[in-house]
Amino acid sequence: MVEWITTDGLTDYDEAVAFMEQRAAAIAAGTAEECVWLLEHPPLYTAGTSARIEDLTDPDRFPVYPSKRGGQYTYHGPGQRVVYVMLDVGRRGHDVRAFVKQLESWVIAALAEFNVTGHIRDGRVGVWVERDNKPLTAAGTKAEDKIAAIGIRLRKWVSFHGISINVEPDLDHFGGIVPCGITEHGVTSLVDLGLPVTMHDLDVALRRSFEQVFGAVERA
Q1: How confident is the model at residue 182, as a pLDDT?
Q2: Where are the alpha helices (DSSP H) in 62-148?
Q3: Is 180 an annotated catalytic residue?
């Protein structure tokens, strides 16, 4: 069984990390169920294990937290649904790449409930949407914006950290970093795409689509 936790208000980042580490250890020890935690953070930047200091373009704008998750710089803040996944990847196949693809597929399935087509791109972890209303890129391809970031860490084959999906954050707040080290693409949100989606709407979609992506594995 997977326990779902939804926390209202804004959750302190250090407190969230402490909870995840404790829960992941308990899952590995077999004393706690797997867990999906839905929350929001106050405005902050996190630096993953591949973060480059030059990508922190405004270091005094918000607090910056070093993070042991994979990836580079990411913004978290109000209006963004953070989804922390504490799941037993060992029981789910011992395949980190496949697990990340499942997380991406999960986000794509949830977005599809709002008629948003998410894409996975080689060399760019996360979920992207094509922007038909923007000019073509210099390469002549459609412009793309990132709508969801993914960064995980494993300890004893149990995951923690996870996903952030932009519902209605202040997109200007991404301006203090080069998000995930990518300069040629932008950032968007469900509301920026013209969809009046609430946090609760997304939570319902996430829970429903989780069963589609992980259900068969969970019952194995």
Answers
A1: 62
A2: 96-112
A3: yes
